[in-house]
Amino acid sequence: MTRHDRQPDTWNGQSYYDQPPLKNPHWDWKVSGYIAVAAVSGAAQALSWIGSLRDRAAFQGARRNASAIGLIGSVMGAALLIADLKTPQRFHNMLRILRPTSPMSFGTYIFGLFGTSSALASLGELPAVSRYRPLRWITRLAHGGAAISGAGVATYTAALMSATSNPYWSSAPRALGAQFATSAIASGAAALALLERFSGRTRTARQLEGVAALASAAHAGATLCAKQRHQEVGLDEALSDHPGRRLDAADLLVAGALPLAAYAVDRATGGRSPTAAVVGSAAVLAGGWLMRHGILNTGKETARRPAAAFRVASPCNLPRTDKRRSWIRN
Amino acid sequence: MSLDMRHEAESTANTRIEPGRSYGFFTDTTLCIGCKACEVACKEWNQLPAEDDKLTGMSYDNTRDLSATTWRHVAFVEQMDQGPDAVMPGLQSRWLMMSDVCKHCDPAPCLEACPTGAIFRTEFDTVVVQQDICNGCGYCVPACPFGVVDLDEVDGKAHKCTLCYDRLKGGMEPACSKACPTDSIQFGALDDLIQRAHDRVDALHEGGRTDAYLYGAPDTPGATGGIEKLNAFFLLVDRSEVYNLPLAPTRPASRTAPAFGTGLAAFAGLALAAVALLKGRS
Ligand code: SF4
Ligand code: SF4
C-alpha cells in the first residue's frame, strides 16, 4: 500500500503556491488569424470545386472568387506563420523533416500543397491558359487538388491545438475537429455567398447560404459536444471567474443562432431580405474567427491555472484504455 | 591506480557512460535539503544567465519555476499542520524540497511536436534541443505536460535541460547530480536507478514512511496516458500537485488522429451535402 493508492482520483485543490503548472507559447492573433484564414480559403476552394462539378457555368464567378481567396489565403497564411516564428529567418527548417506525430509538421506540407495547387488552379482563369486543352485539364486537376488539400488546411489546425498539453485545447479533440470543420465550411460558404450577393448572382448566393446554414447548425451541434466535454473534465469549474467559461455559449450564439436566424428571415420573406442574408454570412465569418481566437486565449488562461491543469490531468480523465486509469482506487 | 578521465562518472556516480544505454536521474526528495547547489552548478556549467527576479514573497523559493535560462529548480513546500491530530496546529510542521528538472520523457511530447527536428533523442536516451536548428515556432512549449521547455526572449530559440549532453559525451556525470551534497539527485543507468528507487521506497515503508512513492518510473503516477516512463523520475511523499506535477499526464500525440480524423469526416459529410445543395441553374 503506497501513498498514491490512497489518494483520491481527482484533484483536491492543492498546488505549488498557485504557480502555473504549464507554459504557454508566445502565439497571439497571428496564429488564430492563420487558423481562420486557412479555414475560409480551404473551404472556399472545396465548395467552388463541388459547385463547378455540378454546374461549371453557374459557378464561374464563385470559382474565380474562390481562386482569389485561395491565393490570398495562401500568401497571407504563410506570412502570418513566418511572422509568428521567433527565429523567422529559419522558417525553411520546417521542411527538414516530416513528422506524423506533429500537426505543425505535416500541416506545413498540407498547407504547401494547398498553396501550390491553388496557384496552379488560378492560372486556369486566364484565357491564354484555358484555350489549350491539356493546360485546361491540368488547372482543373489542380482545382481538385486545392479542394482536397483545402479540407486538410481547414481541419488539421484542430489537431494542432489538441495535440498539446494545454488543458482547454486538448480536452475535446473530437469535438474540436468537428467544430473547426463545420465552421470552416460555414465560413467558406458565407464568404463566397457574400461575394455572389455583391455581384448580383442571387441564385448561387442562396445555394451557398443554404450550405452555410446547414454547416452552422452542424457547428452548433459540435460546440454543444465540446461544451459537454469541457464540463466533464472540470474546466467549467476551473474557469468560473473567467469570461472563458462563456466561450461555448458565445460561439453558439454568434456562429450558430445568429446566422441561422438571419438566413431564416431571408427565406421566410421569400428572398426579399438580402440584408438579413448578408448579416447572416457576416456573423458566420465573425463567429468563426472569434471562436478560434477565444479558444487560443481561453487555453492560455487554463495553462496558468492549477485548478484547470490539475483537474484535466487527473486519473479519471485518462483515456479508458489506460490501465493506470484507476490505480488509485485499488 | 590512476583515474581514467574518459570515465570520470565511474568514480563520481559509479556508472560507466556508454552510448546505447538509457541514462537518467532518480531524485529522492526525502534527501533534499534545499541548498540549491544543483541550480548553481547547472547555471555555471551551462553558462545560463541569472534572472533579475525579485523575491517572490510566496515562500523561500525565489526561483519560482523552470525556464529557458533555469534548468534546475528547487521547490520549497512549506506545510502547516492543521489536521485534527496536529501536534502544534498552525505551526510549521514540515518542509518538502524537490529539485525539479526536465523529465526526458519517453516518448517525449516536446520531441513529437517539434516540426524542425531540432529536438532529438540522444544515444543516451535523453532529449536535447539543437540550438542551430530550432526556428522558434514555440510548439514544443504547450506540448510539454510539465511546463518545462520555453523559448528565450533574447535568442528566440527553445531551451531546456540537456542532461549535460556534453558532459555525458566526455564520460562525466551531469553537473547538478555531481554537485548534490546529499545524493538526493542520483545519476545513473536507468535500469539501475529504477531498481535502486524501488528498494528505497521499500526501505522507507519499512521504516514507517508509508507515504513514499515513485513518480515517473514505469507504471507509476506521471508515467500515464501513453507516456511510458520519465527518464528523470522522483520519489515523492505528498500528492504530485503539491510539487507542481500533474498526477496523470497524457501523451499529446495520441490526440492527433482523433482531432484530424473527426475534422476530415465532418468536412467530408458537409461537402457531400453541398453536392446536393449547390445545384447551379438546374
Ligand atoms: S519534460 Fe517536457 S521538455 Fe522535458 S522531455 Fe518531457 S516534454 Fe520534453
Ligand atoms: S520552438 Fe524550436 S525546439 Fe520547439 S518545436 Fe519549434 S523548432 Fe522545435
* Strand numbers in spatial order across the main sheet of chain B: 9-1-12-10
Total number of beta strands of chain A: 0
Number of domains of chain B: 2
Number of helices of chain B: 8
Low-confidence stretches of chain B: none
The largest sheet of chain A is: none
SSE series of chain B: HEHEEEHEEHEEHHEHEEEH
Average predicted confidence as pLDDT of chain A: 94
Chemical compounds bound to the protein:
iron/sulfur cluster
The amount of helix of chain A comes to over 70%
Q: Give the overall shape of chain B.
A: globular
The number of distinct helices of chain A, counting runs of at least 4 residues, comes to: 12
- CATH topology heading of the largest domain in chain B: Alpha-Beta Plaits
What can you see in these coordinates?
With 330 residues, chain A is mainly alpha-helical. Chain A folds into two domains: 27-163, Up-down Bundle (Formate dehydrogenase/DMSO reductase fold); 168-330. Helix content of chain A is 70%, strand content 0%. Chain A has twelve helices and no strands. Chain A has helices at residues 29-54, 60-84, 103-123, 127-130, 133-162, 167-170, 173-198, 202-232, 235-238, 247-268, 274-304, 306-312. In chain A, α2 (60-84) crosses α7. The longest helix of chain A has 31 residues, at 202-232. Chain A is globular and about 70 Å long. Chain B has two domains: 3-249, Alpha-Beta Plaits, CATH 3.30.70.20; 251-282. Chain B has helices spanning 8-12, 37-46, 109-113, 140-143, 165-169, 175-179, 190-206, 256-277; strands at residues 23-28, 72-80, 92-101, 105-106, 119-121, 127-129, 150-151, 158-159, 185-189, 213-215, 229-230, 232-236. Chain B has a four-stranded mixed beta sheet with strand order 9-1-12-10. In chain B, β7 and β8 form a beta hairpin. The longest helix of chain B has 22 residues, at 256-277. Chain B is globular. Chain B starts with 7 loop residues before the first helix and ends in a 5-residue tail after the last helix. At the A-B interface, α1, α3, α5, α7 and α8 of A face α3, α4, β7 and α8 of B. The structure holds iron/sulfur cluster (2 copies). Residues 113-114, 116, 118-119, 129, 134-140, 158 of chain B line the site of one iron/sulfur cluster.
